[in-house]
Every structure is written in structure tokens, then in C-alpha cells.
Amino acid sequence: xxxxxxxxxxxxxxxxxxxxxxxxxxxxxxxxxxxxxxxxxxxxxxxxxxxxxxxxxxxxxxxxxxxxxxxxxxxxxxxxxxxxxxxxxxxxxxxxxxxxxxxxxxxxxxxxxxxxxxxxxxxxxxxxxxxxxxxxxxxxxxxxxxxxxxxxxx
Length: 154
Hints:
Elements: E1 2-6, H1 12-25, H2 33-39, H3 46-56, E2 59-63, E3 66-71, E4 78-79, E5 82-84, H4 93-107, E6 112-118, H5 122-127, E7 131-140, E8 143-153
Parallel strand pairs: 4-6
Antiparallel strand pairs: 1-2, 2-3, 3-5, 6-8, 7-8
């Protein structure tokens, strides 16, 4: 059974590997090799990653003590990170995480959620009622990547 819990500092390394492998294996369907390498570089300062995770305080989804996904919800309604393990896609873990976020948004009386969503994740977010506000090109480590600002209003 899936368990969704608060992030702990010891999770940072597992979340980095999940992020790295998911971008490299799943997002590679929609982005060029150079783009995924810029997005998830081979060498990355784990202190920077640890600080980012400490800042966003994600929720971690586990199945039998295996981290299968993570996401966050910031006070202003931003979903900064939303990733499901590349080997556990399509098994309902993303749905469980999104339902967790939607429940929290309801508890917080949020009027809107928003995120900067990859080409790959756009259909998933649309399934949960998010709409594209605009397409954007971002520069990341010398590469230009397309993503979408998406939002859901309540």
C-alpha cells in the first residue's frame, strides 16, 4: 500500500536519484538528449539539492519502503517538483500524490494551484483540471527547454 509522508533530510539522495533517472528515462521522450542532460546533469552538487529539498519540503510516496514519487505544495499554491519514479509510472502513484495535494489545497482554502510543467507531464496535469496559461522557453545550463505554466482554479 502506498504511504505518503513528510520529507526527511535523509531522503535527499533517494529523491535526487528518482529525479535524475526519471528525467533521463521518461522526459527523454519529449526532450533532446542535450536538454535532459542539462536538466539532470551527471554531476550535481548534493548540497545544492539538499538545500532545495529542505526549502520545498516535499511529500514522499513510498511503496514497501521504496520511494516511488515526490511532490510539494508551496504556500502560494506552487507545485515546484512533481516526479514519479521511472519504473513505477502508470501505477497510480502520481494520482495518489496529486490527490494529496488537492486535499491539502482544499484544507488551506487555496484559490489556485500552479506549476511549470514539462511537455511530458502536461497531459497528467490536464487530467486533474489544470489549464495551460502560457508556453515558455527556459534556459538551463546552456539549453533551451519548453514547458508550460499551468494552473487550476478552485
